Structure prediction request, 284 residues.
Amino acid sequence: MRIFVTGANGQLGQELVRCVTAAGHTAIGSTHESLDITNEQAVITTISDAKPDVVIHAAAWTAVDACESDPNKAMLVNGTATAYIAAAAHAVGAHVVYISTDYVFDGSKTSPYVEADVPNPTSVYGESKLAGERALGATDAIVRIAWVSGYHGANMVKTILRLRNEPQLRFVNDQIGNPTFADDAAAMIVRLAVEKRPGIWHITNQGVASWFEFAREVLLAAGQDANKVLPIATSELQPPRPAKRPANSVLHNGALLAAGIKPLPDYREALQRLVRRLLADEQE
Prediction:
């Protein structure tokens, strides 16, 4: 298969390209530099020339707080551009897999979110990603992921490791989710893409944690004292974050289970693998 990946230089995008190639398919990656996804004609020309069987649309503006102060740009990049990608893909008969987010939900539910739950975003970022979801066709796929860390790009695991020698760390204990790892998520996304499975899919590593609990797990994986992490409330963050975060970002992987597909492993397994790799890099 020929699989076109937008956002190919991103944290998830690099893993998607690797997984596509490892599965024996041809990966055609586009980056922010090589394709302006907000330029409709450029999107049409690029995808028409590539003639892909599948387009995995991972490019997005994911700076959640920055989106809050520039809603027009957020909607253009995450909403309108997704419509351009989908239309260009459909014109060449390609299946689309759109990478979405837990931020399409308001976080007020007391149990995990299932794929059929009605979105209700409370941030500009969430609204723009939901607009992207609504730009897709009935046979396309929406893959919602959450709390992503990985070897590439900036993420919470790298932040915590950078701060690991500080005497004290403070992380919020009133936001919960499924910490998810880019390499695990990418492998599952590529499988769904190759099989051209339609519909909405929640793809996360298993296990629920607050950011406080996650920070403790990162330090434990690095052989550090987890007791230096102290819990705080979101309301205590200084300075306050511009965008509202969902208090509950836990996504139930019901569609995978219904399809007889084993969900991703516990996040602690992937976390330990990533921390070992990052610490080994430091030794070089």
Notes: The domain at 2-155+178-207+250-265 is CATH 3.40.50.720 (Rossmann fold). The chain has one domain: 2-155+178-207+250-265.
